[in-house]
Amino acid sequence: MPPELLQPALLTFGLLVLGCLVWAIFWRATAFPYEAANPLLSAAERAFYTTLRKAVGADYALFIKVRLADIIQVESGLTGKRRSSAFNRIKAKHVDFVACDPETFRVVCAIELDDRSHRQQARQDRDDFVDAALAAADVPILHVPTQKSYSPDKLRQQVLQAVRGNSVPARKITP
Predict the structure, then answer these.
(1) Nearest alpha-carbon partner for 44 in 108, 98, 140, 114
(2) CB neighbours of 129 closer than 8 A, spacing ≥ 6?
(3) Could you give the 3-state DSSP secondary structure of residue 114?
(4) Among 29-33, 52-56, 75-79, whose mean pLDDT is lowest?
(5) CB contact at 8 A, 159 and 109
(6) Interior CA angle at 132 toward 115 and 42, to 5°?
(7) For residue range 57-87, what is the model confidence (pLDDT) as tens digits?
(8) Which residue in 76, 77, 74 sits closest to 85, CA to CA?
(9) Residue 77 phi/psi, 5° resolution?
């Protein structure tokens, strides 16, 4: 290669390599545009969870933020658009806590910690739907209002009542 072309060729090659590096870094950053989320539980939820664990002891396995679609499923007889529509109504909703039989992991009770956001109409509509869907699937739900502190004994009684089906019946809504 003639010496007068060597410098422009090296400059072009260097710019090409630099461009590839910049593109690779930019592509990688946008191909996976994720970052760590906040903790799974808020401070109020953590305080409640700690007491709930004490309340149920080894009688139940507890899980947090469980998708409704992992607790209930669309009836097997529905097909097509009706099935898709029914599934779409549950796939993105979750309940705060789930108590399960520790041996079979069958869900015995869903538990919602109701903070002041549950006073908003949109949230009440969501709660009505979740309550009715769980009731249709014979899964009890326990709503516990947020408090500064909780009694493990009282909370245990509430969970046991819900598991036995003695909780307040779900509000009726039209599907």
Answers:
(1) 114
(2) 89, 93, 173
(3) strand
(4) 29-33
(5) yes
(6) 25
(7) 999 999 999 999 999 999 999 889 999 999 9
(8) 74
(9) -75, -15
Mean pLDDT of the chain: 87
Which tokens go with 104?
A: 């079979």
Phi-psi region of 114 (alpha: psi -120 to 50; beta: other; left: phi over 0): beta
CATH classification for the domain delimited by 43-163, as one of 3.40.960, 3.30.70, 3.30.160, 1.10.10: 3.40.960
Position 29 pLDDT exceeds 80: no
Residue 81 CB coordination number (10 Å) = 8
Task: Give the E-state strand segments of 35-140 in sequence order.
Answer: 61-67, 94-100, 107-114
Type of residue found at 72: I
Specify the DSSP class assigned to residue 15: H
pLDDT per residue over 87-110, tens digit each? 999 999 999 999 999 999 999 999
Asked if 111 contacts 144 with a C-beta cutoff of 8 angstroms, the reply is: yes
Q: Give buried/exposed letters for 39-72 (b at 16+ CB in 10 A, else e).
A: eebeeebebbbebbeebbeeebbbebebebbebb
Domain ranges of the chain: 1-35, 43-163
